[in-house]
Automatic annotation (TrEMBL):
Protein name: CRAL-TRIO domain-containing protein
Lineage: Eukaryota, Viridiplantae, Streptophyta, Embryophyta, Tracheophyta
Organism domain of life: Eukaryota
Organism field: Nelumbo nucifera (Sacred lotus)
Annotated PANTHER family: SEC14P-LIKE PHOSPHATIDYLINOSITOL TRANSFER FAMILY PROTEIN
Family matches, as InterPro entries: CRAL-TRIO_dom, CRAL-TRIO_dom_sf, CRAL/TRIO_N_dom_sf
Segments forming domain CRAL-TRIO: 105-256
């Protein structure tokens, strides 16, 4: 798979910068940066081939250079840490059967409407994954099917990423949430999935119109998020309408 690189720090290709007090063109700096990044990707790929040759290849496999780059970025370009985390992620994808989860296999549980990927991007150009908490009943729904639906929706949202975008927006619609909808085990699964297997893919999470009964659950979940708790924003449905979508793209559930 071809490796796509983007320029960091928001600088333009020809922005002048200085190194050791000497002005150089940004294109020269980034060319060197790209060369170093290619070397690191190659190093991770060769390590995986040498030490983990039984891992799958192809899309989301040990030779997928885009996936390798994604995990290198997450691990601040530390090869050792990227290899360790990527190995765990590829093994998990195989054991979980991510490639076997499809629209057809998820049809029944998806019919509950508890989660869906919005047809339109938000104003920042991000795919939007919406969870309707009031339609989630852990006592009635199969937990394995819930986990598969979660992964399927993440994969679907990521497949809608436009060029230049790497992260999605998550919206938890908490209107009508009650203790019957509370599911700490599922939230722990969701946190692990985004931390270990889809790192740096969730840019922000909106908790919309959270009722008082949600607060005890949030107090249990927040410590598990650690630094990722900063991604969370509690807001109203009105905020979702006005700040994240246009009149034409706002989800039907959030229209006036």
């Amino acid at each position: 798979m071809a490796l796509r690189l983007s320029y960091p720090f928001g600088l333009s290709f020809f922005s002048p910068i200085r190194v050791h007090n000497r002005p150089i063109r940004a294109c020269t700096f980034f060319a060197r940066n790209q060369i170093e990044t290619h070397k690191l990707v190659k190093e991770v790929r060769e390590r995986l081939e040498r030490d983990y040759s039984t891992l799958p290849v192809g899309r989301n496999g040990r030779d997928d250079e885009e996936m390798i780059l994604w995990f290198l970025k997450d691990r601040k370009f530390c090869v050792e840490e990227a290899v360790s985390k990527l190995t765990k992620a590829i093994k998990w994808r195989k054991e979980f059967g991510v490639s076997d989860v499809s629209e057809e296999s998820m049809e029944e549980i998806a019919r509950t409407g508890k989660a869906y990927v919005h047809d339109f991007l938000d104003v920042e150009g991000r795919p939007v994954l919406i969870v309707v908490a009031s339609k989630h009943f852990p006592a009635k729904h199969n937990p394995v099917e819930n986990e598969k639906l979660c992964v399927f929706m993440i994969e679907k949202a990521l497949s809608k990423l436009p060029d230049g975008k790497e992260e999605i927006l998550g919206i938890f619609d908490l209107r009508g949430f009650s203790t019957d909808n509370a599911d700490l085990n599922f939230l722990k699964f969701l946190i692990d999935v985004f931390y270990y297997y889809y790192p740096k893919r969730l840019e922000q999470v909106l908790f919309v119109d959270a009722p008082f009964v949600f607060q005890p659950l949030w107090q249990l979940v927040k410590p598990l998020l650690k630094s990722y708790a900063s991604l969370a924003r509690f807001c109203s449905a009105e905020t979702v309408r006005e700040e994240y979508f246009t009149e034409a793209t706002v989800p039907a559930d959030f229209r006036d």
